[in-house]
Specification:
By secondary structure, this protein is of the alpha+beta class. The chain folds into two domains: 230 residues, BirA Bifunctional Protein, domain 2 (2-Layer Sandwich), CATH 3.30.930.10; 34 residues, no CATH class. Helix content is 37%, strand content 26%. The protein contains eleven helices and twelve strands. The strands form three sheets. The protein has a seven-stranded mixed β-sheet. Strands 4-6-5 form a three-stranded antiparallel β-sheet. Strands 1-2 form a two-stranded antiparallel sheet. The two termini are 33 Å apart.
Length: 303
């Protein structure tokens, strides 16, 4: 294949920005890629500094019982990932080794652990907040981050199976949650302009599963509960969602029993930054070599 015909992903591999692992959507990250992620992280922190959000960082796994209670398997079973481990006897171990040696399926001896792969950075947050008791009058604001997993293998580099998500989550009265989301819709435009990325914001829906899921997605759009900041990466016709802005109403408040200071069910909203997708958008529009990026973008990211 000629160099001019190489895909964007091929070019990222060739320059060591990303590294192949043999699994679509699962990549190693090179020094240049990580420098951009770190710079973007600093930029987001500066933008949100005056909000004084409580900082929490989560591992890529979460409590399986809490995951089950969240209802994720009801709505997105196609995306979920679980952590399994060997729990057999010595005899079972010998059978496992025999299967490996003969090229067979050795996973039959694995059992589910108490950990599942985190599907969204905010999922571990809500039970923590609920355990604290009623919110203060001003509600709660949290700055969270986690590696997340979604099982959707693809040659599209922006559709990774494991990726970092940074979120700001507002929990409180309906007007507090709604105004938080509106303020971030405005900030997002300035954020994308600072990075000199072509973009637009549009109403969206989550990838709910099945026939009932299609009805939920339609309802989500009709109520304008979800917006996304879209940037062309793989194609102009189907731009990639690089940020999301969600108003959950009282869904998580009711699910976890989160109460306002007045004892009412809390409402929640969040803004999520897809860190890998934003980095890929920058490499796509400004070039594979960060030394050639616009001076203002390099300054914003401290490159």
């Amino acid at each position: 294949m000629c160099q001019a015909c190489d895909s964007f992903l091929d070019r990222l591999f060739a320059k060591g920005v990303l590294h192949e692992t043999g699994v679509d959507g699962l990549y190693g990250r090179g020094q240049a890629f990580e420098a951009v992620i770190e710079g973007m992280d600093r930029l987001i922190t500066r933008i949100a500094a005056n909000d004084r959000a409580e900082v929490i960082r989560f591992p890529p796994g979460m409590n399986r019982a809490l995951f089950e209670k969240s209802g994720y398997m009801k709505n997105f079973p196609q995306l979920a990932g679980t952590v399994h481990s060997f729990a057999g006897s010595e005899k079972d171990h010998l059978a496992l080794l025999d299967n490996i040696h003969n090229g067979g399926d050795w996973t039959g001896g694995q059992g589910a652990t108490d950990i599942v792969l985190t599907p969204a950075a905010c999922y571990p947050l809500y039970p923590i907040v609920a355990r604290r008791g009623p919110l203060a009058a001003e509600g709660g604001l949290f700055d969270i981050q986690s590696y997340c997993f979604r099982h959707e293998p693809s040659k599209d580099p922006a559709r990774m199976q494991m990726f970092r998500m940074r979120e700001f989550v507002r929990i409180g009265l309906p007007e507090q949650a709604a105004s938080f989301r509106e303020s971030w819709l405005e900030r997002a435009r300035g954020f994308a302009e600072t990075l000199e990325l072509p973009h637009h914001i549009d109403v969206a829906n989550d990838p709910f599963f099945g026939r009932a899921g299609r009805m939920m997605a339609s309802s989500q759009r009709e109520q304008a509960l979800k917006f996304e900041l879209l940037v062309p990466i793989e194609s102009t016709e189907n731009p990639t969602a690089c940020q999301s802005f969600n108003y959950h109403q009282d869904h998580f408040g009711a699910l976890w029993g989160i109460k306002t200071a007045a004892g009412e069910t809390a409402h929640t909203a969040c803004v999520g930054f897809g860190m890998e997708r934003l980095a890929l958008a920058l490499f796509k529009h400004h070039g594979i070599d960060t030394n050639g990026w616009p001076t203002s973008v390099r300054a914003a990211l401290s490159l």
